[in-house]
Amino acid sequence: MAAGLVLDILIFSYFYLWTSAVAWLAVLVLLWFMGNPRSLRKAASPFVTILLLASAGLVPYIILLSHRLPNFESGQKLTLTHAPDFLRIPELLGLSVVVFIVVGTLRGRVDWRAPESLFALSFSLMPFVVFNQQVITGRSLQPFHYESFIANYVALVGAYVAAVIIWRGPREARRPVRYRLAARMAVIALLWVAVEVLVLPRQFIIKDNQFSDRVAAVGQRLRQLSGSDGTIAPNNTGPDPRPLVLATDNRVSMILPTFAPQAILWAPQFDFLNLGTGESRERFYKYLYYTGIDGSKFARELGQPMGNIAAAAFGHERVLSDLSVRAKPITSEEIAGQVADYRKYSLSFTRERAAQHVLSYVIVPLNASIDLSNLDHWYERDKGEQVGNQLLYRVHLRP
Q1: What is the pLDDT of residues 223-263, one digit of tens each?
Q2: Residue 73: what pLDDT?
Q3: Beta partners for residue 394, in sequence order
Q4: How far apart are the two ends of the chain, measured CA to CA in Å?
Q5: What is the span of the domain harbouring residue 382?
Q6: How many domains does the chain have?
Q7: Is there a single domain that holds both residue 311 and residue 369?
Q8: Contact at 8 Å (CB) between 348 and 368?
Q9: Regarding predicted confidence, which is higher, 229 or 112?
Q10: How many whole angstroms separate alpha carbon 145 and alpha carbon 333?
């Protein structure tokens, strides 16, 4: 019952944790019944209990999924494929453990039917299930999350358990485990965790937090303005019911909605929104146009590895290869096509197009050299207000 309740909690925590737990449990059940076929009735009771409790948690989870946005799969980079994936590091480590246990069994040093051996094998085989379930289901969802956050640890647990089993040897001549050595290894592991969590990323975490604080200050100022300038009205039913903000730094655009009530013209995570056909691309091109990015600079941005601009143009799965099983590299022909489309868009920009999404505010980093001549052609800017290291402009569409 405790295991079933823990699995229910995992279902509502992190997708890759609970699916890994289900995969591991399925492998363990299969191995357990293969190794102990005569104990089927005795072992079935706890597994059935876990299954029933997990099913109770899955019902509301599936109901919630049924109400997701239509473009949810596109935003999450769901890949439709049956291609196998056998070369991940956790799989290779798990395979080596399986080989060691098989060799140990053939030499009489390991009893593969023993519970500890079955546990080691289940941990080692679980990565193969999560990385290759698409062979049957035809769906793969950002498998790198398994590799980075769960399968690597599970494979290491399997390797460690297998190492202890092989060290101890056969039951009739079992070598005692040096618990003092094991305790030292545990202390070393905990110290390394402390180094990774508390020391190494500290400078990056502090830097990111300071940047977020500065964006929060701009968001608080926008919140104050929303209560005094009348830009947010309850009876506003136009295409943009909330005033639009153009943040020239897309890092600001990703954080600003946490603190400000206004809407964002464009941000790198717009592929998660339920926008109309072509609207995401329209907003993306407007962001490029207003921030002074011409065709040449656009081409350079598209060639940057793991860049937000390239991800917006081609999709995150094309820029981050680990998001899909078989990523398709971006070709020079595709970049040239994107640049040609954007140049055509820029040359044909009209006031009617500017009026489709009317801006109310523009945020520019204080010391940034950004060409706002395209924006100034269609909008009037006030003198600006400095908020931290950002300049906040109020803008009005020219008549």
Answers
A1: 999 877 655 655 555 555 688 999 999 899 999 999 999 99
A2: 57
A3: 361
A4: 69
A5: 217-397
A6: 2
A7: yes
A8: no
A9: 112
A10: 31
Same domain, 223 and 182: no
| E-state strands within the chain | 78-80, 139-141, 244-247, 263-264, 359-365, 379-381, 385-387, 390-397
Taking the model in full, what pTM does it have? 0.72
Q: Give the three-state DSSP class for 253.
A: helix
Distance (Å, rounded) from C-alpha 208 to C-alpha 205?
5
211 within domain boundaries: no
What share of the chain has pLDDT > 70, as a percent? 90
Q: Mean pLDDT throughout 169-176?
A: 73
Q: How many helices (H) and strands (E) does the chain have?
A: 19, 8
Split at pLDDT 50, 70, 90, the class of 271 is low
Q: 192 and 222: one domain?
A: no
CA 373 to chain centroid: 36
Q: How far is CA 29 from CA 37, 81, 274, in A?
A: 11, 27, 41
Q: Which two tokens stand for residue 155?
A: 């494979």
> Is 206 among the domain residues?
no
Domain-located, residue 210: no
Q: How far apart are CA 196 and CA 45, in angstroms?
A: 41
3 state DSSP class of 380: strand
Phi, then psi, of 258 in degrees rounded to 5: -70, -30
Pairing of β 359-365 and β 244-247: parallel
